[in-house]
Amino acid sequence: KALAVSTNKRSAVFPDVPTMAESGFKDFEVDSWYAMFVPANTPKAAIDRLNAAANKVLAMPDVKEKLLNQGAEAVGGSPDALGKVVKTELAKWDKVVKENGIKAE
Predict the structure, then answer these.
(1) With contact defined as beta carbons under 8 Å apart, do 63 and 16 qualify?
(2) Helices then strands (H, E): number in the chain?
(3) Contacts of residue 46, Cβ cutoff 8 Å, sequence gap at least 6
(4) 73: closest CA among 27, 28, 19, 15?
(5) Is the dihedral of CA 47, 50, 55, 56 positive or negative?
(6) Closest Cα partner for 2 from 24, 15, 21, 27?
(7) Whether the Cβ atoms of residue 29 and residue 21 lie closer than 8 Å to each other
(8) Domain residues of the chain, as ranges?
(9) What is the DSSP letter of 13?
(10) What pLDDT was estimated at residue 12?
């Protein structure tokens, strides 16, 4: 039996399973995500075309269904939104690494 999901909102795959926050762990959030990155200095026009194509594919009902069947929710967005996600994730995990003295081996 699933006790909780680690994301900050309930999963579309398991809507009856509470979040960790709902279960009393207020600041606990671990979410897996995937993104498409391009080399630095890629022309904005190329980035915009790739972003539009990715958003179009992620909005397709069959793609959404296939991802949901694998436990993932399709979320499109923009390069700016992805930049905010990356910045937030880096800050969160940098804090975890520093507070726990984690070292790469």
Answers:
(1) no
(2) 3, 0
(3) 38
(4) 15
(5) positive
(6) 15
(7) yes
(8) 1-31, 44-99
(9) S
(10) 84
**Residue 79 above 90 pLDDT?**
yes
- Residues 23 and 4 sit within 8 Å (Cβ to Cβ): yes
Could you give the C-alpha distances from 53 to 11, 19, 56, in angstroms and in order?
Answer: 25, 32, 5
Instruction: Please state, in angstroms and rounded to a whole number, the distance separating the CA atoms of residues 75 and 77.
Output: 7
- Rg (the chain; Cα; Å): 17
Are the C-beta atoms of 86 and 68 separated by less than 8 Å? Answer: no
Tokens standing for 68? 């949901």
Question: Tell me, what's the pLDDT at 23?
Answer: 94
What confidence score (pLDDT) does residue 14 get?
87
Residue with token string 């700016």: 80
Q: Tokens for 98?
A: 């520093």
Predicted pLDDT of residue 56: 98
For residues 66-91, give the mean pLDDT.
93
- pLDDT digits over 17-74, tens only? 999 999 999 888 898 899 999 999 999 999 999 999 999 999 999 999 999 888 888 9
